[in-house]
TrEMBL record:
Name this protein carries in UniProt: Ribosomal RNA small subunit methyltransferase G
Residues reported in the UniProt entry to bind S-adenosyl-L-methionine: G77, L82, A127, E128, R145
Class in the EC hierarchy, top level: transferase
Gene name in the database record: rsmG
Task of the protein: Specifically methylates the N7 position of a guanine in 16S rRNA.
GO CC term (a single one): cytosol
Gene3D superfamilies: Vaccinia Virus protein VP39
GO terms assigned for molecular function: rRNA (guanine-N7-)-methyltransferase activity
Keyword terms of this UniProt record: Cytoplasm, Methyltransferase, rRNA processing, S-adenosyl-L-methionine, Transferase
Subcellular location: Cytoplasm
Pfam families hit by this protein: GidB
EC number: 2.1.1.-
Similarity-based family: Belongs to the methyltransferase superfamily. RNA methyltransferase RsmG family.
NCBIfam families (alphabetical): rsmG_gidB
Length: 233
């Protein structure tokens, strides 16, 4: 175990209390960790301190609007815990799993979870790894934030989703253009009904932009028929 260095975060915006509810103190603690160890370990740029709340913590928490209590959610390429940790704080009824390939980052996430008292799971590996897929199982939703283009992201994330499960990819201003560019590739990988959704409209300017897609539910016609076994004569 290593010491998580705390820094001085900007003042807590008033809207954060409504977003995090009883977890507001834990959210403030997390912001201080990002301002300290997050910068020291290269997970957050030094120039991001002034907008830690708006650009990172609240922006990530906004995705909780797309997650229900009781759902299992994987955060792929979690890094500093964004959006997974703010999601877990804002939606404590969800089961959150953080997937991160780098050892030092996965250790960092485990330490943060312990320090904040969060009941979340940290899995070291890449989303496309078979071991990760076995550890995670079939999930209700997969989140990501600035990880990769939508075609690559779909290739990695779709196998983690149950049928009807959702991809929730946090994107920037070009989200709609990226959807147009990769919609066909996403469909070929089994993700359909792709659309762009704005989250946190009531407390973020600009709001968070999320690309939402659903893993197709295979009908009985699309399932491969089972070959009858040959009986020995």
């Amino acid at each position: 175990m290593f010491h998580v260095k705390h820094g001085e975060a900007p003042p807590t915006p008033p809207e954060a209390a409504a977003v995090f509810g009883p977890a507001i103190e834990a959210a403030e603690h997390y912001a201080r960790i990002l301002a300290g160890a997050g910068i020291e370990r290269g997970l957050i740029g030094p120039g991001e301190v002034d907008r830690l709340w708006t650009r990172h913590v609240l922006n990530s928490a906004a995705i909780a609007e797309l997650v229900d209590d009781g759902e299992a959610v994987v955060d792929v390429g979690s890094g500093a815990g964004l959006p997974g940790i703010p999601l877990a704080l804002a939606r404590p009824g969800a089961r959150v799993i953080l997937v991160e390939p780098l050892l030092r980052r996965s250790e960092f996430l485990t330490e943060i979870a312990d320090e904040l008292g969060l009941d979340i799971t940290v899995v070291r590996g890449r989303a496309e790894d078979k071991d990760v897929r076995r550890a995670v199982g079939e999930i209700d939703a997969v989140t990501s934030r600035a990880v990769a283009s939508l075609d690559k992201l779909t290739r990695w994330c779709a196998p983690l989703l149950r049928e009807g499960g959702r991809m929730l990819a946090m994107k920037g201003e070009r989200a709609a253009d990226e959807v147009d560019e990769h919609r066909r590739a996403m469909a070929s990988l089994g993700v359909e009904d792709v659309r762009v959704v704005k989250c946190g409209v009531s407390f973020l300017t600009p709001p968070a932009t999320v690309v939402v897609g659903r893993r197709a539910v295979r009908t009985s016609r699309s399932r491969r028929p089972t070959r009858p076994s040959r009986s020995s004569s």
